[in-house]
Amino acid sequence: MTAIQNQSTSPVAHLSADDIENLGRELDAIRQSVLDARGADDARYIRTVIKTQRGLEAGSRAVLLFSLFPPAWWLGTAGLSAAKILENMEIGHNVMHGQWDWMRDPKIHSTTWEWDHASTAEQWKHAHNEEHHTYTNVLGKDGDLGYGIMRVDEEQRWSPFHLGQPVWNAINALIFQYGIAAYDLKLGKNLKTAERRNNPDFRARVKATLRKVGTQGLRDYVVHPLLSGPSAVTTLTANLTANLVRNVWTHSVIMCGHFPEGVQTFTYDSIDGETRGQWYLRQMLGSANITGSRLMHLMSGNLSFQIEHHLFPDLPSNRYAEVAPQVRDIFERYGLTYTSGPLIKQVASAWGKVIRLSLPNDLLGSRSSTPRQPAAVAA
């Protein structure tokens, strides 16, 4: 039983155990229908996105050879920023989830893909696929929930340290890929004691991350600028800007998926003995969507459909838009709130929560970060 099921004011208090398991079976059926329908169109989609991304990156780097001239700098920087976002979000994140493993293409497979990111693929897959998606929004188990530096629920004890969390969050946005690498390494935990610091496995993972960071830095901040000749300095600033844009955009999308008002958090003991239906319910209430255009969905890696992604992390990302109306229908029929909104609204909501929870509960008056009243049962 989840913690929210044990509260009389829970948004799922109206659901019986049978309701929850029936909900799970309906979601299983949606997932299976997509698995059965995967085919040539899906394979063509991901190959087209990869080809487009590589062409955009190569073209942008070519334009940056002339970045001494402002129009070339702006054009090349914008193109490189978009290429880096596409590579991280719609390609790298989703390939490493195994969404395209069914194609049996060794070039587009979760076991072989290495992305343009400070965190190595293997470390990211463990921290993200195995831990975050298993323990979505479980306090103390889901490292993505506040990244270990933020208070994310009123039930968490407040300390003066939390006054700085708006600042920590802003810094994290600017250096997001490095923050994720540090989180994947569990630096805060592993640097506390000599025993942990000297653990051979930890030291090997640190070395692997440093090699990855060094390779990226050499490419973006040495090789490509030098190849630009007279435009070396402007190419360097373009690469710095593109990485900054990618970091801030990725951070914003992730924040929108897990931090806006209305998203539930859970305690570890609440998931003891969790059934398949209860796991689905936790994903539904622990995620939020972003509304927008097809371009918005593409550039977010289709994580604008964060609810659908957490329900079905192994389905091809291009199918989330297809299943979203079916998922929303289940929300409505079972009397649950489908948290969704435009990017600006969701970003503002997430930042509002970060700022609000940086303060003691009694300073501004108690206002739970999760809905406490049960949602109305759909007619």
From TrEMBL:
One of its GO terms (biological process) is lipid biosynthetic process. GO terms for molecular function: acyl-CoA 6-desaturase activity. Its EC number is 1.14.19.3. It comes from the Bacteria. Keywords: Oxidoreductase. The keyword Oxidoreductase applies. GO terms for cellular component: membrane. The keyword Oxidoreductase applies. Coiled coil: none annotated. Residues 73-340 form the Fatty acid desaturase domain. This is Linoleoyl-CoA desaturase. It comes from Mycolicibacterium fluoranthenivorans.
